[in-house]
Amino acid sequence: MDTGSIILAGATASLIAGLATVVGAIPLLGLRRPTEEQQNLLLGFAAGVMLAASFFSLIIPAIEVARNQGAGRIAASGQVVAAVLLGALAIAELNRRLPPLDRLGLGPPGIAASASIRRIWLLVAAITLHNFPEGMAVGVSFGGGDFEQGRMTALGIGLQNMPEGLAIAVALMTVGYSRRKAILAALASGLVEPVAGLIGVSIVTAAQAFLPWGLGLAAGAMIYVVAADIIPDAHARIAGGGRLGSGLMTGLAAMMFLDTIFG
Ligand SMILES: [Zn+2]
């Protein structure tokens, strides 16, 4: 197999996997502006998707990659634990330093609305960031020249990108963005994958060394956003969270299923 066709295959597969993100957001075209109650259900769904994705498509694969590179059990787990904590710290710092958006003239006036929008953009940023190591993983799996392995990785990642795209789009709709803008944001987030895929397939060895860190950092960021932003935000809308819990469990179950059937 020549290098050119390997790179082409890796780039194409990660592009298709990335485009699945916007496919997942398309059902939203049929939805009008959701009520507060529905918003919490949808935010819960997004939170559940992010939690399951963090463990099943980021943390567990990160430990596996580290082990395959020859790290022992303790070293592999320790490395990924460190990456998860660093990812959480980084997003916490970002959370703390971002000024309220209305002060920047971005969000609508009013602290509550602006805090909510800021949280939603952190969610979008966390999901977008995690698409980077994921796209890289697709590229790396093609980089070895084993297309069967590459296709399975791309399929698995593509499938779990659908609920993630939906999560991004519904979250943006809950703070008043139009359906069109919400779906475009899901598309933009997915397009990170072919870029990362191209890098992964081109520099397999270096990308492989980065993967346990990249996947772990992304997981830490996503878990932190769920715990520190999405859940408190839902509780601020409706005391007790309303249907947040049912949404969370539905998203978690759907994502867990998608993430593990190709394990
Ligand atoms: Zn994902």
What would you note in describing this structure?
There is one protein chain. The chain has 263 residues and is an all-alpha fold. The protein has a domain of 178 residues. It is built from 9 helices and no strands. The chain is globular, with a radius of gyration of 18 Å.
N-to-C CA distance:
26 Å
Which secondary-structure class do the elements indicate? mainly alpha
- The averaged pLDDT comes out at 86
Strand and helix order = HHHHHHHHH
Q: What integer value in Å does the Rg equal?
A: 18 Å
Bound molecules: zinc ion
User: What fraction strand?
Assistant: under 5%
Low-confidence stretches: none
- Tell me the overall shape: globular
The tally of helices reads: 9
Helix content estimate? over 70%
Number of E strands: 0
Biggest β-sheet: count, sense, barrel? none
